């Protein structure tokens, strides 16, 4: 007799995510010494402002020409114009809730309707207590015209858009992530 079972309930993504997801090259979207490379650093905090010390951030991005070396790129897969560019990074948080990614600025992306998305990185956040990953974006502070024309950013309440904008830092950019509470980072349902 065959019995139909229901869906298995979701499980949290921690506390052991560091065991299987850590690797030495994780934070390097590009190799050290790549011309134009910079660090994006940030801190992940919970609703009470406390650091989340067991989180993991993954980044996905286009190369500086706005291209992906992937068959899903509607213009066709093409190797990156930057040697060693992976388009993907992974950084775990430390004891202060800090993460860091070494990358290059992505180019703008075409939209299906002929428009353009502003240069951005897509981040996934994994942590103990989360049933599913959280997805957000990092937009660049030196792209005001592109950011103003970006349809995804324009779809976010004006008083919350700043939670998606990186800020200049001495060695690159800063992008803090607040999981809930006042000034919570905008997360997207994907």
From TrEMBL:
<keyword id="KW-0223">Dioxygenase</keyword>
<feature type="compositionally biased region" description="Basic and acidic residues">
    <location>
        <begin position="64"/>
        <end position="76"/>
    </location>
</feature>
<dbReference type="GO" id="GO:0018578">
    <property type="term" value="F:protocatechuate 3,4-dioxygenase activity"/>
</dbReference>
<dbReference type="InterPro" id="IPR050770">
    <property type="entry name" value="Intradiol_RC_Dioxygenase"/>
</dbReference>
<dbReference type="InterPro" id="IPR015889">
    <property type="entry name" value="Intradiol_dOase_core"/>
</dbReference>
<dbReference type="InterPro" id="IPR000627">
    <property type="entry name" value="Intradiol_dOase_C"/>
</dbReference>
<dbReference type="InterPro" id="IPR012786">
    <property type="entry name" value="Protocat_dOase_a"/>
</dbReference>
<dbReference type="GO" id="GO:0008199">
    <property type="term" value="F:ferric iron binding"/>
</dbReference>
<comment type="similarity">
    <text>Belongs to the intradiol ring-cleavage dioxygenase family.</text>
</comment>
<protein>
    <submittedName>
        <fullName>Protocatechuate 3,4-dioxygenase subunit alpha</fullName>
        <ecNumber>1.13.11.3</ecNumber>
    </submittedName>
</protein>
<keyword id="KW-0560">Oxidoreductase</keyword>
<dbReference type="Pfam" id="PF00775">
    <property type="entry name" value="Dioxygenase_C"/>
</dbReference>
<feature type="domain" description="Intradiol ring-cleavage dioxygenases">
    <location>
        <begin position="38"/>
        <end position="180"/>
    </location>
</feature>
<feature type="region of interest" description="Disordered">
    <location>
        <begin position="62"/>
        <end position="86"/>
    </location>
</feature>
């Amino acid at each position: 007799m065959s019995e139909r079972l229901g869906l298995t309930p979701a499980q949290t993504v921690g506390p052991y995510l560091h065991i299987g997801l850590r690797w030495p090259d994780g934070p390097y979207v590009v190799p050290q010494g790549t011309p134009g490379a910079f660090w994006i650093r940030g801190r992940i905090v919970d609703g009470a402002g406390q650091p989340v010390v067991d989180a993991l951030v993954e980044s996905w991005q286009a190369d500086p020409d706005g291209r992906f070396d992937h068959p899903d790129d509607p213009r066709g897969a093409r190797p990156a114009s930057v040697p060693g560019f992976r388009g993907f990074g992974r950084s775990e948080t430390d004891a202060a809730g800090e993460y860091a990614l070494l990358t290059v600025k992505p180019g703008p992306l075409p939209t299906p309707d002929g428009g353009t998305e502003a240069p951005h990185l897509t981040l996934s956040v994994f942590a103990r207590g989360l049933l599913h990953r959280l997805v957000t974006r990092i937009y660049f502070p030196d792209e005001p015209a592109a950011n103003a024309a970006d349809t995804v950013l324009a779809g976010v309440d004006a008083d919350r858009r700043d939670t998606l904008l990186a800020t200049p830092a001495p060695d690159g950019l800063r992008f803090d992530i607040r999981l809930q509470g006042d000034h919570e980072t905008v997360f997207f349902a994907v």
